[in-house]
Amino acid sequence: MKFQPHNPLVRRVPPVPVRVDTTPVESRLDQIQPVKFVQVRRTPEEPLFNSLLEQYHYLQYEQPVGESVKYLVSAQGRPIACLAWSSAPRHLGSRDRYIGWNPEASLLASPQC
Q: How far apart (Å, rounded) are the C-alpha atoms in residues 51 and 18?
């Protein structure tokens, strides 16, 4: 029998739904001040961020690969936006083939750690 290492992403449990006010904000930006941008990665607010993406983003929530940063934007005491960035992959076969890179060229173009 071949050893299968544990991979928690194989059986991902979706974030627990969190209820928030979804009434559209129909005000000018200067009327809903202050708008707060809060970094929520590895904080108690991260589950709220994950839940909002799961519920309202058309692709739902996926665990970012590599390093990432997550911001929850709020105004008038409620979340109004979620922003996330994750690190670019060092190697991406389909991209590398599309631009004509062979494995050696891909290594040369990547920053060395």
A: 6
Q: Which amino acid belongs to residue 6?
A: H
Contact 82, 61 (CB under 8 A): no
Give tens-digit pLDDT for 6-26: 766 667 788 889 999 989 889
* pLDDT value of position 36: 96
- Whether 108 shows a pLDDT value over 80: the answer reads no
Are the CB atoms for 79 and 50 separated by under 8 Å?
Answer: no
**Residue 90 is encoded by which pair of tokens?**
């060092």
Contacts of 95 (CB under 8 A, 6+ apart): none
